[in-house]
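Quick one:
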Amino acid sequence: MSDWGPIFVSVLLFVLLTPGLLFQLPGHHRVVDFGSFRTSGAAILVHALLYFALVCVFFVAVRVHFYIG
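Output:
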């Protein structure tokens, strides 16, 4: 059996935390912009740090596992 948990969590977080897709932190005109489809260097850095923190939480603290097969 193979563990698909880390793969599913990584892909889901990558899609949800893409800057400008659902939200952008910091935004262009406000602190948070929703659905702007634009990005900046600061937003990329903030979203990368959020991604790293959430991946660490899900992999180390929660230990998400999906076994298929």
